[in-house]
Amino acid sequence: MLRIKRRNRELLIDDRDKATYLNDGYDVIDDEGHIVEPATGGKTISYAEHLAEINALKAQIKPDQSAELDELKEKLQEAEKTIHGLKTELGKLKSKEKKNAEAAG
């Protein structure tokens, strides 16, 4: 026999009915009332619990995004340096080409 609980209702059920009750929102509990196996469906939570979970998940996301953002900023700076170097080199080549054209012509 298993002991299950949902809100303030406790029941003793046969082991064969366990999956049905878990889907209906009942938790399997031990003799002291501690949850041994949480419900798999049909369970409602309070808005405060829901909000707390959302905030916890947001806190996990922000550090990951900031690390990614820092990495992208670094790549952007490297790309800007490369572009600046290429523009400088292009200017030198154009200047050299102009001098060669003047010397030949």
Give a quick precis of the structure.
Keywords: Coiled coil. The chain is α+β, with helices and mostly antiparallel strands and 105 residues long. It has helices spanning 18-23, 47-104; strands spanning 2-6, 9-13, 27-29, 35-37.
How many β-strand runs? 4
Query: Strand-and-helix sequence, N→C?
Result: EEHEEH
DSSP summary: helix tally: 2
Cα distance spanning the termini:
104 Å
Class from helix and strand fractions: alpha+beta
From the spread of the alpha carbons, the general shape counts as rod-shaped
Largest sheet: 4 strands, antiparallel
Tally of discrete structural domains: 2
Strand-residue proportion: 15-25%
Average pLDDT reading: 90
Low-pLDDT stretches are none
Write out the strand line-up for the largest beta sheet, numbering strands in chain order.
Answer: 2-1-3-4
Instruction: State the share of residues found in helices, binned by percent.
Output: 55-70%
> For the CA atoms, what is the radius of gyration?
33 Å
Coiled coil: 62-96
Keywords: Coiled coil
What does this structure look like?
With 105 residues, the chain is an alpha+beta fold. It has 2 helices and 4 strands; from the N terminus they run ββαββα. It has 2 domains: 2-37, no CATH class; 45-105. 61% of the residues lie in helices and 15% in strands. Strands 2-1-3-4 form a 4-stranded antiparallel sheet. The longest helix is centred in the C-terminal third of the chain and has 58 residues, at 47-104. Residues 62-96 form a coiled coil. Keywords: Coiled coil.
